[in-house]
Amino acid sequence: MTPFELAEPRTLREALALLDPDDATVRPISGGTAVMLMMKAGVLRPRRLVSLRAIDGGLAGIAREPDGALRIGAMTPLAELEHADAVRREWPVIARTLRTLSNVRVRNVATIGGHLAHGDPHQDLPPVLSALGARVTVAGPKGERTVPVEGLSTGYYETVLARDELITAVAVPALGRKRAAYLKCTTRSADDWPALGMAVALETEGEAIRTASIVIGAATDRPTRLAAAEAVLRGGRADDATLARAGDAAADELAIAGDPRGSAAYKKQLARVYLRRAVRAALG
């Protein structure tokens, strides 16, 4: 690795001031699980890394908002989120997803803010949080703004974040009557990057699906909402015929490129199969 400056600001304001909107070699670092791998591989040669670990002021921790939403500080390790009682009890899909996200050593260090800011389309949490309607709070020199997790990524390793902006928190709405599931297909070990990930959140009324939120990851260059499949499911029952039509709608609306984890045709078939499985998993 080439030499670089390591800055350790104590406040969020200091951290933002150390970032440079015009210099791609100045990067923030939280857990560092992705950044250090990129540096070792030589694809990232930073001039300055701005560590967020020493910042005071609520950038870590898990809390309940008055409206029932879950608030997660951006510097919260993924392992802490995985084991939080409130998450396991009221957002079990998040806890279940985290159990097969990478491995225990990574989850102990990686933070949710860094996970989302990295923009890797193969990650597991972005499609889940998108299906749940989560939003991130972003801080920058001009103040704060909120961005839906669904709209955070713009492509491979690209996000709407400016170089002098940081994610400070994630808010996940109360699940309420919705039931959710996330399933992924991996070509190697269970904790490997998936060939496809499918997240669904459903609200039912009797045997009918009242609302459906379906987001696919890994097979596309960013978490992608399957609007046509959602339209098929809304108002219908989760029977074989309806799920088959929804799966076909999902495959037809997807723009998929093949990669080492599978061809485009293979991933389209995975979308059909895993949509059906995820809906049934969510409905129990």
Question: What does this protein look like?
Answer:
Strand 12 and strand 13 (208-217) form a beta hairpin. The strands form 4 sheets. This protein has a 5-stranded antiparallel β-sheet, with helices on one face. The chain starts with a strand and ends with a helix. The longest helix is centred in the last third of the chain and has 20 residues, at 264-283. It has 3 domains: 5-47; 62-172, Uridine Diphospho-n-acetylenolpyruvylglucosamine Reductase, domain 3 (2-Layer Sandwich); 179-283, CO dehydrogenase flavoprotein, C-terminal domain (Enolase-like, domain 1, 2-Layer Sandwich), CATH 3.30.390. Helix content is 34%, strand content 25%. It has 284 residues and is α+β, with helices and mostly antiparallel strands. The chain is built from 11 helices and 14 strands.
End-to-end CA span: 49 Å
Oligomeric organization of the protein chains:
single chain
Percent of residues in beta strands:
25-35%
Biggest pleated-sheet summary: 5 strands, antiparallel
Helix content: 25-40%
Strand order of the largest sheet: 4-5-10-6-7
| Strand segment count | 14
* Number of self-contained structural domains: 3
Shape: globular
Which CATH first-tier class of the largest domain would you pick? Alpha Beta
Summing up helix and strand content along with how strands pair, one would put the structural category as alpha+beta
